[in-house]
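Narrative summary of target 7.
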Amino acid sequence: MPRPLRIPFAPLLLSLLIALLLSPPAFADTPAQVNAKIVAWATQNLAAYQKAVAYGQHKQSPQIPVPPAVDMPCHVCGDSTQTQGEAQVATWVKQAMEPEATYMTTILSDGKQVTLFRALGNELSPAAERALNQYGSNDSFIADAAAVSQVLVGQKATEMANRYDKDPHMAYAGILFLLQAARQADLLGGNYGDGAIQLTSTWMSAVAETIDKDVTSGHKYNLCPVYASIFRQIELLGGPQTNMDQFTQTIQKIQDAVKFNVKLQLKADINGADGSYLHATWSGTAKFHLDIDMANTCYTPAFDNNGSMAVTVDSWSSQGIETSSSGVKTPIPITLTSAHSYKVNLAAPQLNLCDPQPIFQIPLSTVKPPQETIMAKGHTENGSFFQSFLAAVVAPNEVNNANTNAVTGQTPTLPGVHPPPANTGAPARPDTSGIQSAADQLKAHQGDIGWLMGPQGQAAIANIQKQALQTTQKVTASAGLVIPNASNFTNFANSMASAHLPWTNGQAQPVNKSLHIKKDNDDIDITVTVTQSAH
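Modeled conformation, tokenized:
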């Protein structure tokens, strides 16, 4: 092997190498001591280096990894919690990259170190030169690492894809491994991107065939963000083998599949013992969609048009009873004089499709319709009906107010949510140790603005908020009010004012749920139906 090019003595470089490689007091070492340590380093690392180089230079028959069959991960935007499937796939990909990943790292890191040593030129002792000459030339390290990457791509990743690219359930793990292996090879001067795209395209074609079944018909909407994300990654990679039209059409199909029509019907039958009554029916329509963020593989549930819902009073029949001093009862017709069609705005919905049993939360008790008015005996009075009846079935609420009663003849109090069953034992005391620990940490740094505003301080503040939220949810659950877990207090508060509807994935309609309250002669119910929009 040719001797390295000698360069003039470079004391600065020598000092740098000593500082990087030798333990203190490094600058006190003599050149002889440095050369001795270079020989020791070369001897210690040679076997691993030669094994790594030989792996890429000789024909290999590596074991072909088998991708785990894992559902593609589901994430609501803002939730960075790693799913069990993601953790499993990440572990598998790391394992599948071995031993090649270690061999490439060994060759490149040792090559960099040898190159730095050789830069000492004529300061190297003959023994140090002989030790370093057992390694490749300065120009061969990249090529040797690339040879290992070729085994990883050509004989592991490619063979894996050829075996399993018809199985859509293995696509998530297999494609991640395939693309990572190809990127590693291309960084080392290879040209495997196009081949990887072609293999990935074949795999995603198998996945695309399941989209109609899984998403369009099966309502497995939790798969949509990651489906769209992978297709988008392939589209951005480009390449002569990429069928852009197919990917564009598939992404559009996914986005169309997560558009929905929301229909609400509210029916109130209020019957007083004196013969007074109110029978009314309202219908509301709104549009809802999942806003897919393909860059972050997540989604956000949202109503269209800033939550606008069109409401129509389909029917209204009401009468009050006027009782004379002699006890004679006279029916008094009550008419609805305000608009029978109007719009209300819904707050943001909540829907975590990643839950095994998703709950669609629609904030209904906080809608603000235009002022409603009724007329009896020529007298007009303001009232609150649509919103109040919604609240009656969503949260504890009553529509018994003086103004309305004056016109309707003391309509009976509307029912609220039944109270939780009595707890015969002492209520469990919530565990606040987590909150106290977080509070103590903040107190210890209360005068340190830099710490409070820095990453540690912000993390501590977020932790105390999280602990407080968890405690609050436990307390409400112990009181008989169980709502879906919230990620912040805003979502928690919105949940308290929302209708909770099971999102029935895998059925003909995602949601078709009735909420019903009946007390004495009062009967109020809401039916909410969500159907996939036609497109």
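Confidence is low (pLDDT under 50) at residues 1-27, 396-430.
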